[in-house]
Design brief:
The protein is mostly beta strands. It has one helix and eight strands, in the order E-E-E-E-E-E-E-E-H. A five-stranded antiparallel sheet has the order 2-3-8-5-6. Strands 1-4-7 form a three-stranded antiparallel sheet, with no helix packed on it. The longest helix is centred in the C-terminal third of the chain and has 4 residues.
Length: 117
């Protein structure tokens, strides 16, 4: 009979000062208040990380993702079942720009420097 695994408990995060977490405490940075990251996980094939985005503002636009603790250097468009699409240019400031439809979902595959080589 299979049992249910208990969740792994992580130590509580204690921040010394009130306010948002500093950039190194999050995997990615995004400034768009109408964007929600609804999923982020290692890709099923082991190549990169797949980030799934949702527009909650009802506006079609291009949104930016910047590296924070996760230092990606290359990016590709992908769909929700992780089939690769076109390359996404990563700008000089590290931004990967992803097109997002109004109320739509989009996904991107991000590669760390080691995976990119």
């Amino acid at each position: 009979m299979g049992g249910v695994r208990s969740p792994v408990r992580q130590p509580a995060l204690h921040q010394r000062h009130a306010g948002p977490l500093i950039a190194k405490d999050r995997a990615l940075f995004y400034a768009d208040k109408g964007l929600m990251i609804v999923g982020a996980k290692a890709a099923d094939d082991g190549e990169g990380v797949v980030v799934k985005l949702l527009d909650v503002a009802g506006q079609p636009r291009t949104v930016g993702l910047w590296p924070a603790a996760y230092a990606f250097k290359l990016a590709r468009r992908t769909n929700l079942v992780e089939l690769n699409g076109d390359a996404i240019a990563v700008s000089g400031d590290g931004r990967a720009s992803v097109d997002l439809a109004a109320w739509g979902v989009a996904a991107a595959r991000l590669f760390t420097p080691a995976e990119a080589s």
